[in-house]
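Project standup — Tuesday

K.O.: blocked on the structure for the chain from last sprint. Re-posting the sequence here as requested.
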Amino acid sequence: MPIDTHTKILATIGPSTATKKMIEKLVKAGVDAFRFNFSHGTHEEHAERLQIVRDLSEKYKRHLTVIADLQGPKLRVGTFKTDKVLLKKGQKFTLDMRDVAGDETRVMLPHKEIFEALKIGDKLLLNDGNIELEVISNKNYAAQTEVKVGGWLSAHKGVNLPNVKLPISAITEKDKKDLKFALEQGVDWVCLSFVQSIDDVRMARKLIGKRAWIISKLEKPSAIEELDDIIKESDGIMVARGDLGVECPIQTVPVLQKRIVKACRKYARPVIVATQMLESMIVNPTPTRAEVSDVATAVYDGADAVMLSAETAAGSYPAEAVEMMHQIIKQVEENDGYFAHLQQDLDLSDCDDVADAITYAAAEMSQILPNIAAIVTYTSSGITALSMARERPTAPILSLTASPIVAQRLGIVWGVKATVCGEFFKDFNRIRDNALNAAKQNKIGKKGDYLIVTAGYPVGQAGMTNLLHTLQI
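H.V.: unblocked you, prediction finished:
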C-alpha cells in the first residue's frame, strides 16, 4: 500500500466509488483522506460511506481523514421555455425576480441580495464564465445587461460576480442541517464554501467550536484581499481553482496558487490544491502531459495535499487516477532539488516563539546529523505536528498523540504519520521509550539510527513545545 510520499492525496467519494470494494481500492492505491461533497448525495448515503472509511482505517491501521465539504450558497438562473437560448454579443438581456420561465430576452435570478449589490458597470459571468454580461441599469429588482460575450444558456446555470462582495452568508440553512449531521458523524474537517471574508470563518467557528477543524475554500477575489487574516483564522485552506478561475482572470490562478501555498506554510496551516488536476481521467485511462505537470507543480510548490474531484467521484478510472497521482508525487519528491526548493521558499517572519524555534532546530538537526530515521513530535492538539510540517524536513515526521481525533485530522498534513499512544507520559524516560516503540511499530529506522524528539514538558499540555532531544535506536 503506497504510503511512501510526503504530499497527501485527497479523493472525493461519489457514485463511481460508493461501495466498500471501490473505497478500499482507493485506500490501497494511496488515498490519505476522503472528501464527502454535500452538494450531492443524501445523509444516509454519506453515513454509510463514512462508516466504510472508518472500518478501513481500523483494518489497515491508518488514520484516514474525513472531510465534509459544505455546498454553500449556489447562485443560479431560473428556467427557460425551451431547452436553451442563444445570447448574442451586443444584445440586451434582463435578469429579474419574476418566477416565469425565461427566453432570449430575460430570465429569473432568484437572489434578492445580488440585485441589492449590483452597480452599473458590474460584470456577471454565467455558465462557468462562458457568458459575460455587463449591468447597464438596475432598479426594482431587475437588472438590464448588455451581452459582452455570448453563448448558449440553459436552466439553472451558475452565476458568478467577480469583484462584487455579496451580503450573503457562507452558511445556508441547508448547510446548517448538513453541518449538524456531519458533526454528529464525527467528521475530522469541515470545508467552508463561498468564503468572502474573515467574518465567514468566524461564523463557522461559532457553529463548529472544537468539534472539527475548518478548511476555508478560497474561490472569491474578496477572500484573496483578506488572505493572511483568513488563513490565520482557519485551520486549513483549499485553493478552489474552479470558481477562482472564473471570478479572477484565469491567467492569475497559477500565481495565486503559489501565493496561497506560501502564505499557508508561513502560518503552519495545511493547504490543499484542488480542481481539474487529472480532469481527462474522468473518461480516459491516462492523463494529459499538461495535467501531470500541473500536479507536479502543486507538489513542488509545497502543497500538503492534492485533490481528485470528479476523477474519483464520477469518473471511469478512479483507482487509476489515484495511482497516477501517487506516481507523480513520488517522482517529484525523489528529485534532488525538491527539498532544497521547499526549504529555500520558507517564510519564517512570523515565527517568534519557543515552539517555532524548537521545530526549526529539529529540522536543521535532521539535515546536519547522519542517520536520522525520523522526527518524533509529541502533540496533544496537533499544533506541534503542523509546526513541524511547515519546515518540510527530509526525515519522516512521526507524530504521537493520545487522541485518535487529532491523529485523524493530521491525515492531510504534509509528511506526518500519526500514531495514537494510550496516554502521555510525564516521566522523561517513558517519553523516550514511547518514541522508540513508536518507531519500531511503524518500521521506521534501524539499529544505530537516530530519532529527533520534540515535545512539551510536562507532556500533554497544548502549546507547550519546549523540549528537543535525540535518541539512538
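K.O.: great, moving the ticket to review. Residues 196 and 222 are 5 Å apart (CA to CA). The chain is about 35% helix and 25% strand.
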